[in-house]
Specification:
Largest sheet: 7 strands, mixed
Number of helices: 11
Number of strands: 9
Strand content: 5-15%
Structural class: alpha+beta
Radius of gyration: 21 Å
Strand order of the largest sheet: 2-4-5-9-8-7-6
Distance between the termini: 26 Å
Length: 329
């Protein structure tokens, strides 16, 4: 079994908030954005921008990988601290984070927490260009709203932002402000784009009769010998459960979101993929309910499921590793 979500007069609270934000070193754009999202009930003297959403920011630090790391790198680049957005939080990224923190009078620990996030993000909207837009686009795709990460905020990106905002019960104006940034980086979104903790995913899969195994008998995301479900997408978990119900096969997950898999947007690390043990029951079901599509560079044949002209599932037959590498889009 599995073991191991008329111009009005400015209020006193808003004035206090703006003064506090300026004292903390925010730019004019940051202050305007933060003030627009704050309310008298959430403002506290000495607080920084984004108080209303502060508790929801993820912590990003050395050793981590993925879209949130790439987002930090792109935003740092937009702030003048140029980095390669490879999604790997190494020593170079840590050094740039510390430099940015010192410039903003924050504790220079190299850890991107709530205070650093709220100084780092910037408002982007239609007509904006550059690495900050590319960060938004990558986050949208990771949340299930696929868009080309070209760094240009055009009508397509605006439409995806509005759809995401509606799903998160935010003002659907297509402007990525501090609240929208917070919702993007902490995961969520429509159509199964949200992410689950290892415990949440394990409970759902266990209830469906799905097991997992690993060579290391562990669930640590940063150990390639473990099988982790941390930050797996809801859509992926739903897909595996659907596979179990429709095939009536025994389903064993042998690979999840841990390190050691190939990178990319639709990757294991980003929660789009799982490895499922290659049994005759599973193989027969896949062959009967998908179409043989193409052969990957590593020799794996991909069997594809489409709907409305769009790819829904890819089953890659990694027979040499005795599992199916499944991608849920």
């Amino acid at each position: 079994m599995l073991t191991t979500t008329r111009k009005p007069r400015r209020s006193l609270a808003a004035s206090v908030f703006l003064a506090s934000a300026l004292a903390a070193g925010l730019t004019a754009t940051d202050v305007t954005t933060a003030a627009a999202t704050a309310s008298p009930g959430t403002v506290r003297t000495g607080s920084t921008a984004g108080v209303a959403v502060q508790a929801s920011w993820p912590t990003v630090k050395s050793g981590q990988r993925g879209v949130d790391v790439a987002t930090v790198q792109l935003l740092l680049t937009a702030r003048g601290y140029t980095l390669t957005a490879d999604g790997v939080f190494g020593s170079g990224t840590a050094a740039k984070v510390k430099a940015f923190q010192r410039a903003k009078h924050l504790t220079a620990d190299g850890i991107v927490g709530p205070n650093t996030w709220t100084k780092l993000v910037m408002t982007v909207k239609s007509g904006s260009k550059g690495p900050s837009v590319k960060a938004v686009q990558r986050q949208l795709t990771d949340n299930g709203y696929a868009v080309t990460a070209d760094g240009v905020f055009g009508s397509g990106t605006a439409a995806k932002v509005k759809a995401f905002q509606k799903a998160k019960h935010l003002t659907a104006n297509g402007i990525v402000d501090v609240n929208t940034w917070a919702a993007l980086v902490r995961g969520g979104g429509a159509g199964g784009g949200g992410k689950l903790s290892d415990a949440q995913a394990a409970a759902r899969l266990r209830a469906a009769g799905i097991t997992r195994s690993s060579s290391g008998n562990c669930t640590n995301r940063y150990n390639k010998n473990c099988t982790s479900l941390q930050d797996i997408r809801v859509r992926t978990v739903d897909g595996v459960i659907a596979l179990k119900k429709k095939s009536r096969c025994r389903i064993v997950i042998t690979g999840g979101t841990e390190v050691g898999h190939a990178g990319g947007t639709y990757s294991h690390w980003n929660g789009y993929k799982v490895d499922v043990a290659r049994t005759s029951c599973v193989t027969n079901y896949i062959h009967a309910h998908s179409s043989k599509h193409h052969k990957r560079g590593d020799g794996a044949w991909v069997w594809r499921v489409t709907s409305g002209g769009k790819t829904v599932i890819d089953y890659a037959d990694e027979y040499w590793a005795n599992h199916w590498d499944i991608t849920y889009y």
